[in-house]
Amino acid sequence: MFRQREDILQRKSGEKVTHRGEPSEWRIPRQMRSLGPKAMITGGLGYCGSQLSRALLQEGIGVVLLDRRELQSELPKGAVFFQADVRDYEKVFQASEGIDTIFHLASFGLSGGEQLKKIKEIDSINVGGTKVVIDVCKSRNISKLIYGSSVTVVFGGDPVEDAVETLPYFPLEKQPDNYSKSKSIAEQMILTANGAPLQGGETLRTCALRPPGIYGPGEDKIIPRFIKTIQSYLLYFTFDTTGTWMNWVHICNLTQAYLLARRALTAERNFIASGQAYFIHDGDKINFFEWTSVLYEKLGHPKPRLILPGVVLKIVVTLTEYLYWLLNPIFNFTPFLTRREVGHLLVTYTFRIDKARKQLGFHPKKYSLAEVAGDYLRRKSMREDKGSPSP
Predict the structure, then answer these.
(1) pLDDT tens for residues 236-254?
(2) Residues 298-311: pLDDT tens digits?
(3) Under the phi-then-psi rule, with left for phi > 0, alpha for psi from -120 to 50, and beta for the rest, what region is 232?
(4) What global pTM score does this model have?
(5) Which residues form the 3-beta hydroxysteroid dehydrogenase/isomerase domain (predicted)?
(6) Best CA proximity match to 93, nearest among 195, 207, 11, 1
(7) Buried (b) or exposed (e) across 283-296, using 16+ Cβ within 10 A?
(8) For residues 55 and 41, what is the distance between their CA atoms, to the nearest angstrom?
């Protein structure tokens, strides 16, 4: 059965998945078997997965972190690591022994150089991996599945203001990038699976959280790239984005939402989140360049006074992407921004979180971007003291 499913996914993704994880006889550690609820987080070594695992452990929930990367640091006490690719049905099946909830956070192609990878890899992880997770839930009798989605499933570049969850999916054929298209397909797969019968006789309950950009201490994909660009003195100017607004979410607020979503898929909450999608953010609208202006002060750099039109930003970033394709085979660098990210900066896209407030009991707290810069500088200083290169 395992081999047949694996062959199907390999044909879908067009590539062979190899693994260096646990052997086929792997079983959940004995110390976890005595615990009550147990959750598995795919993409568990990522930023969101790491933060969520700590929060789950604090609530007395056992955690299995599944990730294809090798473990580089010590695990939180009570967590278990299983190295595997989310596209490998057999490995995911093994890792999910005794699990009652899966947080499916594994994804690829969100930002920087990842966005510019071939569609095959993005699709096989985001779509193929999601199919595996759903199949494992059905065969393992896992009744709760929470998906880490994105606001881009409904936003494709056209202005969106104060939208609610009834906004239709952005047409797949018009999605401007592979990541957003694959996330939309995956979310629809997750929500369609809601109500599916499980082998043990229970019912699969699913929901999806749609965050915008994520920030917070330790985040290493988006804000740190902006900080490095400031420190490299490459931003003597800013761009005219007057009147454009967006939402962001602090990692602590997003983690709170995941915990609430899990509870909202239980009988105690009348399965209120079953089959639902939720926008999740800090509750504020921000202009990106105004919001990030605090970073200049924190980093000891003067704020740029020269304001250029947005079309210049598009041209610069387009040239940078071409340079990436040209130089990437011999020189590895991460673009400051991609065309997808620029498209998000130059148009308003905001969403309401009333549904999450009402149904999940979500109440975001206020956080400052200055703390992110402070954390980045502390980490950078620690690496330099140890003689390690900056990421």
Answers:
(1) 677 778 889 999 999 999 9
(2) 888 888 877 877 77
(3) alpha
(4) 0.85
(5) 41-305
(6) 1
(7) bebbbbbebbeebb
(8) 12
